[in-house]
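Lab meeting notes turned into a lecture example. A postdoc, R.K., suggested we walk through two folding results consecutively so the class can see how the record format repeats. The first protein's sequence and structure tokens come next.
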Amino acid sequence: MSPFFELIHEDAKTGARAGVLHTAHGDVQTPCFMPVGTQASVKALDAKDMETLDAPIMLANTYHLHLRPGEDTIARLGGLHTFMNWSRPILTDSGGFQVFSLGSNVILESPKGTIGSRLDSIARSTTSLQNDKEKQPSALQNDNKRGHGALVSIDDDGVTFRSHLDGSEHRFTPEIAIDIQHKLGADIIMAFDECTPDNVDHARAEEAMERTHRWAERSLAAHALQLRSLRLRSGQKYPQHLFGIIQGATYEDLRKKSAQFITALPFDGIAIGGESIGFNMDETRKTLDYLAPLLPSNKPRYTMGVGYQPQDFYDVVTRGADMFDCVSPTRMARNGTVFLPDGPIHITNAEYAEDARPIGPACTCHTCRHYSRAYIHHLFKAQELSAYRLATIHNLHHFLNYMRTMREAILKDKIESLRAERSEAKQSN
């Protein structure tokens, strides 16, 4: 039987790696980009679209699926793969990032007492919430009135938070997060962690890191216990691979300490989390430079939240990363931003109103083979929902193809020359 992760080739100059993830729902060639299907769906697309795009794996969100429709409902309906009609691998996050992104006021509970600390709203959060601890939940009225108290209460056992949908109170612990992910049935699941923003002080970052470490051990124990007690959804016969997450904010000493701790535990893969990863590429590069030598070569490395633009992939791939996810290509598509080899364009701009060319003249995606820039421009101006679908198809095709080309270059020891070629082409345009 093949190991979960198989390292095929490593570029001697850069450390870029080509490998394969072996899962029950198929192999995933790495490095790979994972489209984000937050609520068991990539926004504006269905499973057939994703198959046509040849997406090797998708990411689904534990927090959102727990709130709606609920993990028990999904389990009764056959698990996440059956529920969303997706036969290929799925990764679920632990829900920690979303919980800690709920708002700006966070109450920290510790044996020393209650400490009030203000967290800056995480830039990648998609939900804007009110920060009134005492306000009672009210009925959901419309999409613009979703916040009902964004307070999150953190203690050593777990996190208590309020739903952004209806204000109802919920509790996540490492055990609960693992249980939810078991019921969802994803191929790859994540340990529960505490995500901190960039600007926390060293003491606060260390406290969160140490809590993440304790929760990592508990996540492993819960995972093993559920496997032994067969507390999986009915009929599930395949293994679920658990990843641990390195934290430590922007502090090198904490990141290294966290890497040493997490890599010593029997996780199937290693993730690097935190607000800085992906969002702050200068800090991402710096972090990977000193972490890469500490990471085991026989396990996949997942840099969480990377992919704001395709060029970012070079920065992490050439530092040994294998897996990435980001909402950027889908979110920007819905805002009318589409990617080309030399950078993004805003298809809603007036200059494209009569442009008969496809979005990408050399692109082979469904959108570019059948529709013009003028037509996509018109759909956005007319507020037709098909605009979202067609722009999203193009952007995901661009990102996925970008990654496939990079993998081919790694296998041929040409990743540096590929980067140089793309950089020259961009500058010439």
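The second example is placed directly after the first for contrast:
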Amino acid sequence: MIISIFGAGRSSFYAIDYLVKLSNKESWTLNVYDRTPKEVPNSILSISEVNKMDLTDAKTATIVANSNIVVSLLPAQLHIVLARLCLKGNTHLATASFIGEEIKYLHKEASSKGLIFLNECGLDPGIDHMSTCQVIDELQESGATILGIESYCGGLIAEENCQTNPWKYKFAWSPRNVILAGQGVPSLLIRKGKARLVQWHQLFKTVNNLDLGQLGRFDAYPNRNSVIYRELYHVPHVQTLIRGTLRRNGYCEAWQQLIEWGFTDNSTMLTSIHSVAQFARMLSGFNFSLNNWKKDLSEACIEKLEFLAFGRQEAFAINQGTPADFLLEILMSKWALEDEDKDEVILYHGISYEINSEIHNKTSTLQVHGKNKFDTAMAKLVGLPLAMGVELMAKNKIERKGVQIPNSKEWYEPILTNLQSHGVEIVHSNDL
């Protein structure tokens, strides 16, 4: 068995560590590749050799063809490159990312070749699918009719590490993805039997205030296309289906203001920007001062926006780029993780169902803390399920072929059980 991993960034540690230990136990060959091995974190270099490889290199096709399974830990837009090479090389593929439209079209060919192209096997998407489908299957097997599903996940920062940050948020994952959240694709959801389309500029206005008791109060906003999961979760007639993202209470109001000012725009090129104040003035069209807009915003929102200090005169590290580029520069200094900061992942889903003419609710929650800036809960909860999915593929435990997500028992039962042994346990409650 030859497993090849492409991508060895900081967030890949748990996936690589798990597969290194598994390969040593099973006498498999594990190869790790990265475009810039010299920049790979020492934590990874201490457990595995990392080989230099660029996807544009002609040797990549040979490496893929000589592998039994390819694991892509690359940015999502690059998965399709490896997917096409896997088809040519008759090689299985595993990723933690949402299935791209181009990869969907490979299903028939992958199936005909007996290949598994596993996607959405991380945290969100991934653990959320598996835990939701487990509950749905158990309820349906007991004769219940599923009425509604709401599933939310947040990559956050432990509250004790952001007492001076009114946003209660720092970058524990891809900073740029946070800036561009929701852009490019509208969100689709089902509420009370009707499909609803939410354009990205309205996304942070479409907020559900979620009180999770001891876990805290959160803004929950819709994420991507929830409608497709009616079929994937085997609930074609469900009346409510919403998948979304969690942020600390009050985040969305302030972020919506940044959107309305144009600060998150990634299409307009700005040049000759020399300071934060100049950037703010250019977008706002007036002398950027709190006094101009305080009357229209809540005190909590004003506190968050003041924290970003748009009036300061410090120079940017860049002098041209899109508004999103400049906003990212500001937030990288304000939302950067300190070495000892602990990130926090919270996953929640609530399922309403009818059985014996009575309506009930079942909730499931997961809370995991990271250890520090380098050992994060996010990396753990993305990397471990992906590696465990690869293990099932390598041991021929999966019968279904083609492009798929881990929404069936053959995936979720062993992975969720295995996660429990690594301290990742979902708590279920009825009729809270």
